[in-house]
Amino acid sequence: MIGYGCNASPWYDHDPRCPGREGFHHGIDVAMPCGTPLFSAVDGVVLDPSEPGAPGSAYGVHPFRIRTGDHDILIGHTIHVFVRPGEHVHPGQRIALAGDSGAPDGCHLHFEVRRAGGGLSTAVDPAPWLGLS
Q1: Its pTM surpasses 0.85
Q2: Which of 18, 20, 98, 133 maximizes the CB count within 10 A of its CB?
């Protein structure tokens, strides 16, 4: 749907790293029907939303992060979350349902990888985390 990096989507403000008026998308958006179950691909701990690096309202009303050692996996635009802060999650565990909360372009998963505790400036290309090339 929308990949990591510079793009012409109207939802992002111009970014100096990008040509023309393009903005920068810090994750990968994957279109899917609302209510699609989302499963963890990693071992990690669900972070408290008050910890540094918490996502803002652009990620919907139920965004959350899973800490996996040196990185935080940020999941956005969910309509329901099954995990709680402090909970340890495992690969294959159902963690949320995809939705369109905070998303002007329909139901999808927003998947973002940041340095542990970092903000937008620490986001890295999440394609390798999803097995994409």
Answers
A1: yes
A2: 98
Give Cα separations from 102 to 55, 78, 128 (angstroms): 12, 9, 26
pLDDT in tens, 21-31: 899 999 999 99
- CATH tag for 30-130 (out of 1.20.1250.20, 3.30.200.20, 1.10.3720.10, 2.70.70.10): 2.70.70.10
Residue 16: is it exposed, middle or buried by C-beta count within 10 angstroms (0-12/13-18/19+)? Answer: exposed
| 19-50 burial: b if 16+ Cβ within 10 Å, else e | eeebbbbbbbbbebeeebebebbeebbbbeee
